[in-house]
Amino acid sequence: MYFRMSVALRAGTARSMHFGVSTAMRAVTARSMHFGSAFAAFRPTPASIPPSDARFTLSTPRGLPVHIHPLNPLEFLLRAAQIYPEKLALAHPDVQFPVFYTYSVWAQRVQNFAYGLVRAGIQPGDRIAVLSPNSPMIAEALQGVIGARAIATTINIRLTKQEIDYILTHCGAKLIFVDHEYEHLVSDAKARIIVCNDTGRAGDPYEDFLTAGRDFSQEKGWAGLEMDADENKPLSLNYTSGTTGRPKGVLTTLRGTYLASIAEAFEAQLGMESTYLWILPMFHAAGWTFPWSLPFSFSTQITMRTVDYSLIWKHFLNSGVTHYCGAPTVQIGITNHPSAKKVPHPIKTIIAGAAPTAHLLSQLESMNFQSVHVYGLTETYGPVTRNYPQPSWNTLPSSSRAKLAARQGHAFATSFPLRVIHPTTTPGEELVDVPRDGKTVGEIVVRGNIVMQGYFQDPDATARAFDGGYFHSGDLAVWHPDGSVQIQDRMKDIIISGGENASSLAIEQELANHPDVLEVSVVGREHPKWGERPMAYVILHTESAPRWAGKHAEFSSALKAHARERLPGFATPEWVVVVEELPKTSTGKIMKTVLRKQAASAKL
Amino acid sequence: MYFRMSVALRAGTARSMHFGVSTAMRAVTARSMHFGSAFAAFRPTPASIPPSDARFTLSTPRGLPVHIHPLNPLEFLLRAAQIYPEKLALAHPDVQFPVFYTYSVWAQRVQNFAYGLVRAGIQPGDRIAVLSPNSPMIAEALQGVIGARAIATTINIRLTKQEIDYILTHCGAKLIFVDHEYEHLVSDAKARIIVCNDTGRAGDPYEDFLTAGRDFSQEKGWAGLEMDADENKPLSLNYTSGTTGRPKGVLTTLRGTYLASIAEAFEAQLGMESTYLWILPMFHAAGWTFPWSLPFSFSTQITMRTVDYSLIWKHFLNSGVTHYCGAPTVQIGITNHPSAKKVPHPIKTIIAGAAPTAHLLSQLESMNFQSVHVYGLTETYGPVTRNYPQPSWNTLPSSSRAKLAARQGHAFATSFPLRVIHPTTTPGEELVDVPRDGKTVGEIVVRGNIVMQGYFQDPDATARAFDGGYFHSGDLAVWHPDGSVQIQDRMKDIIISGGENASSLAIEQELANHPDVLEVSVVGREHPKWGERPMAYVILHTESAPRWAGKHAEFSSALKAHARERLPGFATPEWVVVVEELPKTSTGKIMKTVLRKQAASAKL
Question: Taking every annotated instance into account, which residue ranges of this chain make up the domain AMP-dependent synthetase/ligase (chains A, B) (predicted)?
């Protein structure tokens, strides 16, 4: 638990008068276990210091029944600032100018952000674009927009300038917040741009924006900002990273975010004692609702600008990290880093983006990481299912256990139950469940509170995705007798080999078990006889690579032999290519479209 | 974690075919740590066994948007039955015929209950009365009514026959479920009565009702029951125990129960490993939403028919209990019982109903109980605030710490923030906050999702309670600078002594610190000079009683001297009476109306 060191905050100092908390409470504040002296020495900008009589209630719209208030995830931050004002909310330590914001200060900054938007003429429903790595600014934007009833559009900073131009135009951003490192990406943008130098110090244009917001508020505080009477209004607009085609804008709502983030906090067992390390980019599906789960549970968050494994390990070992999220590819980077060792206290890791292999799960377990395997899409606020471990697994051999743990499982705490249906081909077709036999492949569909409102300004795509009253995930899965789902493949990644449907994921799972394989991706390649045949792209383990150097043909034979023992003939790779790296999206997803093109043109 | 022993459930046995879960999962089931052989040997009625292809989704009303599903707390049980079918949901061990229901079986019984209601002609919105101590029947009723969209009216079994007649008439119950021990209380009722002999065996009229429900369902399962399209429909109708006047019927809603029970699960840190002991009667404010928090968190619950301290201690020491709720008076009974000792694993105890004294809190702490101090009313679904411990308290002396821990604190996770206002006298008067000075006494008011829909068929009382757009709690409190509230008294319990407002609670807190005082209650008594003066009713500690035997006048002087050192003159008790017991409501609340009458007529 990070609390500011007592030294700077003794009752009766001039400084303590700035906070609206009792002096008795604050006379002795628990010492920070981590970031101690840096945290104690840090001084936020004057505009970030809340008034001594701060109140933490948004103005309520008139006419609501006494027994209903609209669900609004900004409430979580306000509550944390009221109840634990001195707790460290957000640390951003790995930069030239580190910052450490307590909940009290952080809430003030978020309030300033909201007033800054109002001052800039932002109206309810206007889109605010944000281009930033993980940083206080993007975290503040995701809260602050709610105060001004605007919509946050956080954009993937690893997209091309053209893609970003498309998104900025499509969302019609009225204001753009950009991290100094990515300013060149918005040089053609028409909207007003606010640059953040990520210093947290006066003179930083972003800080000046916040200060102007504070001035503009005339100290009306939260009461000067009205909460939306309609909990179904949008909160964020998240563009899918789209491995093919134009990115689509996914609209989330206040209600959906509120309910999904509570489920996330519960499933991840976040609490007062938790410290979450931001490895997952916050611009990815609005950080899987963690931006709101963390204040809901009074957790501390640490932001890192880059996925730097040395830094990640430094935080694992020295900063009291208890939680982080990562796709398997990131997890592989973590567990195979030279600094990797058993962590001194258990760390919960939320794994999504692809099914973890048995090898990865056992590696994580041996290093004292507790895996929470979840599945979801941008359209489902990030995670919407979780693998719920069963006590009966404890007595199984680890390989069987890992296979069960690789299933995507059941719907999240506040989600409506999922279904797996026979893929539909015509609009309006009745949705028919596949049998729960663990064999029949169908499409995962879901409806309810943890589903997006729709695609922004794309009624056709929304109608297609919502056909039959359910959101169609595009993910192919089997449904097990216990009601858990297990993904076989993305619909477009399935390989039609000799008339059989071969799941590229299932092939990858088996190939990943080969001791020399670090990472693998399988795509279909045209075949004169079979239509398509699987082609495997493999990265070798660092230790194994020298042994196979110059002998890739032999490795290929060995891996094919490994596969033949475990897979049906139509699913055994016809071709194996050893590579140094795999093409990935900014969020760590392997871009199979790129691999497919490479496969098609490869000379073998 | 209680799971059924593997012996009865090996894959391939005929029995295992009755459950819709995979055989692989169930081949080896974790052994139950507690209730082992009794749990393994228990056989539910045939009607309680779900079909092998059970599905756990209520039928969805047509016309809902894809991205919204109505909040419905029955979803939690359905989800638990799907994900952890073999986990022990409910144990009822201390009766002639003990029962042990897994989530899978329990959900089937709840479904049968719902179909039983439909079969009996119950329409959505009809009231179903339940008179029962804690038992499977009342727990099933609180879930089952949701399936039939009826309203559960659980009635306090310790009320008089007249009071019960009044409630049955007022709520217009269409059907009455009554435990065999309380059948005489409903002998005049007009509605159809179903008696429960609490056996869980065929031949029990209640079990026959469930079996008939199952038959009536024609195996349509949950899909044959439609979830309410409107999440603001009522779920339960809970009559206040009303220390004065006619009991009022408090209507809760599906949405409110859903949100309050999630908050409860989060605040109490319920989870897979939790076992909740039902000491709090379920008929009290619908069990403070625990009936739904427990399946939400996959917890196990143990029901006990009576508050028997020997039995409670047996379960603390032998049944893996991790959570229970209790008013201070119950806590005193627990900590002062001959079996009391340090419990081997920490037990979380949720304290409400009155502020715990410093003495009680330190006693609980020394016995390895972790206190979660909450405050609420029937009108707020039970708890709506919680005392949030501050790290800064750790360095305070225990007496100061206990004083801070006795505050009622801040609003719950999913509640709207509370306010403390200057008490209003005329309808429509503007609500004005008292200063947050820890001194000015005002009334606690709250609005939003954790507030009742209103008083059933009592628009006048509802309008009075909801004046100005907030629910008026009738509890007087001060507001501290840190935003926490601290109750001073019920409005009607305040003592006007020499023109000063003396808080009976504050006086009790000080008197309870006297080493010879086990329990104390203070009321006002007419005084010729001062208008009113405090009168204290005291129960002595078992060890202290012999010392003061025949010397109550001396004890009275000693206690008054103790009070004079700690309280202003107008708050010092004028009279002290030693008693053997205090008049209490069934929920452990001291009935000050009774004491006031005793005080008025006492010859001193």
Answer: 79-456
